[in-house]
Structure formats: structure tokens, C-alpha cells
Write a structure and sequence with these properties.
By secondary structure, the chain is an all-alpha fold. Helix content is 59%, strand content 0%.
């Protein structure tokens, strides 16, 4: 009876630098840093600028549209919150009696703006996950983000209007 042995990997060990040099043999590809033509280079380094080179698989066109569209209202809300913070600080610094400082919808809107800006940071941090979603899911996510911002804007403007 033969004793079975664990299969061994018969593939030769790969050398990423040799693979890159072989890939560029006879191909005109610009250096990603200086645009020097890397055709027939002998080492995995640009001869012009010295940039180390790697061979990787990627998509020719990354689509950031839905992600940017989802981040836009949060960026705007964060900037607006910085400007709206002035009357909020005046209220606290002058220690105005209740009802004489910034109205509560302004305070709520300011807090929403800062939370919205924080959500942009989270979207950026998890951008690779979001980019892996289908285009339909990314579009629904962007529409949801915009819907929340539009709804909050309408509610806060309506509350300010009713206070007058």
C-alpha cells in the first residue's frame, strides 16, 4: 500500500521584479511618476527618476461618482455648520437668557451639520467597501443620504418659519 503524501507546490517561486521586467519587455508603458518610457528596462525601478515599480492588476477606470455624490451634502453641511456656529457661540459667551440667543432649530441644524461632516469621514474611511457595492446600491445609498439632508433642511427651515 502506497502512503499518500501531501501534494507539493510544483510551481516555481515567483519573482515580482522579474515578472515586471518580463511584462515590460517590448511594451511601451510610461512611468507613473515621471512618464519615462519603461520599454525594455532591466530592473523594477525607473531609470529616469528611480521610482520603484510594481506590477498589479487594476481597473482602467474607477467610478467614484456615487461616492462623491453621497459625500457632497455632508461636506456642505459641515462647512455651513462652521459658519452657523458663530451665533451659537455668541449665545453661550454672552450668557443670554433663554429665548434671546440662537433659536433651537439653528442649534439642531448646527449639530446635524457636524454629524454630517463626521459621516463624510466615515464614508471616506470605508470608501473601498462602498466602491465594491453594485452601482444600484451605491446610487440608492447616495439618494438616501441626499434624502436625509433635504428632509432635515425642510424640517429646520419650517421650524424657523413657524417660530416667527
Amino acid at each position: 500500500m502506497d502512503v499518500e503524501t501531501a501534494p507539493t507546490n510544483t510551481r516555481p517561486r515567483r519573482d515580482p521584479d522579474a515578472e515586471l521586467v518580463a511584462f515590460l519587455d517590448g511594451r511601451s508603458v510610461p512611468c507613473p511618476r515621471c512618464a519615462y518610457d519603461l520599454r525594455d528596462i532591466k530592473a523594477a525601478r525607473c531609470p529616469e527618476c528611480g521610482e520603484p515599480l510594481i506590477l498589479k492588476v487594476g481597473t482602467p477606470r474607477i467610478r467614484f461618482g456615487w461616492l462623491v455624490l453621497a459625500m457632497a451634502p455632508g461636506c456642505f453641511s459641515g462647512v455651513a455648520a462652521l459658519f452657523v456656529m458663530i451665533p451659537v457661540f455668541v449665545t453661550f459667551w454672552q450668557r443670554l437668557p433663554p429665548g434671546h440667543g440662537a433659536p433651537w432649530p439653528v442649534m439642531v441644524g448646527d449639530a446635524f451639520g457636524f454629524l454630517s461632516a463626521a459621516s463624510v469621514v466615515l464614508m471616506y474611511r470605508h470608501r473601498h467597501r462602498i466602491m465594491a457595492w453594485t452601482a444600484r446600491r451605491q446610487g440608492a445609498f447616495a439618494a438616501g443620504v441626499w434624502g436625509v439632508h433635504v428632509l432635515m433642511f425642510v424640517l429646520l427651515v419650517g421650524a424657523l418659519w413657524l417660530m416667527q
